[in-house]
Amino acid sequence: MAQEIEHTHLPIRGLNIHVAQVGKDELGTVVFLHGFPEIWYSWRHQMRAVAAAGYRAVAPDCRGYGLSDRPPEHEEAAWEDLAADVLAILDALDVPKAFLVGKDFGAAPAYEFALRHPERARGVVSLGIPFSPGPMPLDDTMPEGFYIKRWREPGRAEADFGRYDVRRVVRTIYVLFARAEIPVAKEGQEIMDLADLSTPLPAWFTEQDLDAYAELYENSGFRYPLQMPYRALHKIPDRRDARFQVPVFLVMGEKDYCPKFPEFQAGMKSGMMEKFAPDLRITYVPEGSHFVQEQLPEQVNELLLGFFKDHPVAA
């Protein structure tokens, strides 16, 4: 029988951070870091799989998301806080060293933590997001209706989202982000106009899953999720001198829209990641979407467990 996922709150750097965890840590600990519009629940399939294999799975709600406390409104979102939160979580749980698995913007603190604290990281896995040594130059390469440009504008996404209830907003984002095309609004449109209730959910995402997400976003709202990541993208740390001392594994869904960002395309074609990560593995999942870990959990779980097995504690 599958082990039950347990929930707790940890006092982390002035905030109560919600952490879901499962497993006995026989082979080590894996920390899962979600993106947007995700939450700890995004890792439900991976958490149970790694726990069954002998690992302890730890999945926090990022500060300001889900059941975690929101930072004060006057406090600007900072990428450095996310990596510092990971360190504090490991310390609070008495975990000396862990694998980091990041998805979407959660890849950034996974990379940053491994660079800052290589002695505490066994390896880094990123789903869909290559390592970037600095902010992405979006302004010149993408049209005005590009969703990130829209959501970076203070008040615009709030007004767009505010036309609907939270469940409808999360539903629309999941529909849009599961596609292979980059979400771009036309003149006179907002991002929420790109899908309606007649558009079916992805086959692998149930109404019950949507209920779970909606309940968590009812709690947190969208204020901080719009700050982090969208209004903090220009503040990604400059890491042009980065060199990973731990193994790095990049899993790319071939039907994920993110690799179509011009900066990511250019970086992958130039072999940019190899310059920063000497021990690098890249795998492409042919049918994988932006939500590959929820869409194809068995494939992703097999890839993760293979990577972990290749880097045991004694290595």
From TrEMBL:
<dbReference type="InterPro" id="IPR029058">
    <property type="entry name" value="AB_hydrolase_fold"/>
</dbReference>
<feature type="domain" description="AB hydrolase-1">
    <location>
        <begin position="29"/>
        <end position="161"/>
    </location>
</feature>
<dbReference type="InterPro" id="IPR000073">
    <property type="entry name" value="AB_hydrolase_1"/>
</dbReference>
<keyword id="KW-0378">Hydrolase</keyword>
<dbReference type="GO" id="GO:0016787">
    <property type="term" value="F:hydrolase activity"/>
</dbReference>
<protein>
    <recommendedName>
        <fullName>AB hydrolase-1 domain-containing protein</fullName>
    </recommendedName>
</protein>
<comment type="similarity">
    <text>Belongs to the AB hydrolase superfamily. Epoxide hydrolase family.</text>
</comment>
<dbReference type="Pfam" id="PF00561">
    <property type="entry name" value="Abhydrolase_1"/>
</dbReference>
<dbReference type="InterPro" id="IPR000639">
    <property type="entry name" value="Epox_hydrolase-like"/>
</dbReference>
